[in-house]
User: Which sequence fits this backbone?
C-alpha cells in the first residue's frame, strides 16, 4: 500500500525544524557522513518516517511526525541603527535581540531592511513559509513611507511608476503618491508600493532622479500592515485573520 505523504518528510526539512542547523548545513553533514538514520548513513533528499531513529553527530532524535507545527508569524517594528544579521564585527544591535526572549521557536526572517531603514519585518517559525513569502514569483506587495529631500514633483512619481534605469537595470514601483499633508521644507513624504525587494532599490530609484531619500519606513508586507500601537523595537504575533490574509496573498497551499 502506498504511504501517505503526510507521514514522510525530507531529512533536511525535518532536522532544520529540530535543530539550529540550516538545510544547507545539514546537507554538508550528510556529505561528511555525520548523520545516520536507523544506523545507516543516508543521502541528501532522503525521506524519514514517523518512528525513525536519527543520529546527528552525538545527538539522537526519534522522528515524530505527529507533532504538527502550527504556523506562526511575528511582526517586528525595526528601529534605525539595528542590523538584520545575527552577528556583526562592529557590535551593532541586531534585530534578533528584539525577538521574544522566552520563545522556543526557531525564527526565519522575511526580507531585510538596511541599517538606515526602519519599520515592518516579519519572522516565520517555518522556513518554507518564509521562502514562500520572499519568492519573486508571488510578487507580494511591499509598502513604504519615503521621505525625499529635494524639489520633488508629480512628474517624479510618474517616472518611478514608469520605471528608471539603475546600473543598467529597469526598476519601477506599482504606485508612488505624495503625502501632501506631510511636507516639511525641502522634505516631502511619499507612499510607495513595490512587488520586489532588491537591495536599496528605493534609494537607487530616487537617486536616479537626482533626489535623496532621507527616511525609509516599511509599513506593509503582503497585505499585513504595521499598527501604530507597536512601538519601535516592539513585536507581536499575527492574529489568525492576519495569517489567513498573508497566506492568501502568497498563494500558500
Assistant:
Amino acid at each position: 500500500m502506498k504511504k501517505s505523504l503526510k507521514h514522510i518528510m525530507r531529512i533536511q526539512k525535518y532536522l532544520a525544524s529540530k535543530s539550529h542547523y540550516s538545510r544547507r548545513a545539514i546537507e554538508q553533514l550528510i556529505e561528511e557522513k555525520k548523520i545516520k538514520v536507523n544506523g545507516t548513513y543516508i543521502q541528501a533528499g532522503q525521506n524519514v518516517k514517523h518512528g525513525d531513529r536519527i543520529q546527528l553527530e552525538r545527538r539522537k532524535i526519534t522522528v515524530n511526525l505527529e507533532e504538527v507545527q502550527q504556523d506562526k508569524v511575528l511582526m517586528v517594528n525595526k528601529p534605525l541603527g539595528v542590523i538584520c544579521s545575527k552577528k556583526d564585527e562592529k557590535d551593532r544591535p541586531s534585530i534578533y535581540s528584539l525577538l521574544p526572549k522566552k520563545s522556543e521557536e526557531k525564527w526565519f526572517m522575511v526580507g531585510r531592511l538596511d541599517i538606515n531603514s526602519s519599520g515592518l519585518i516579519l519572522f516565520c517559525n517555518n522556513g518554507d513559509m518564509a521562502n514562500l513569502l520572499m519568492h519573486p514569483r508571488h510578487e507580494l506587495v511591499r509598502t513604504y513611507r519615503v521621505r525625499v529631500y529635494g524639489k520633488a514633483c508629480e512628474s517624479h512619481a510618474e517616472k518611478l511608476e514608469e520605471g528608471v534605469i539603475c546600473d543598467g537595470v529597469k526598476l519601477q514601483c506599482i504606485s508612488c503618491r505624495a503625502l501632501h499633508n506631510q511636507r516639511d521644507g525641502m522634505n516631502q513624504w511619499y507612499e510607495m508600493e513595490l512587488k520586489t525587494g532588491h537591495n536599496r532599490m528605493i534609494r537607487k530609484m530616487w537617486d536616479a532622479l537626482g533626489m535623496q531619500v532621507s527616511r525609509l519606513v516599511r509599513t506593509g508586507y503582503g497585505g499585513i500592515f504595521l499598527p501604530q500601537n507597536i512601538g519601535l523595537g516592539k513585536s507581536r504575533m499575527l492574529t489568525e485573520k492576519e495569517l489567513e490574509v498573508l497566506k492568501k496573498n502568497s498563494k500558500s497551499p
Observations:
- The helical segments are 11-18, 23-31, 127-134, 154-162, 201-208, 240-249.
- The longest helix spans residues 240-249.
- The two ends are 26 Å apart (CA to CA).
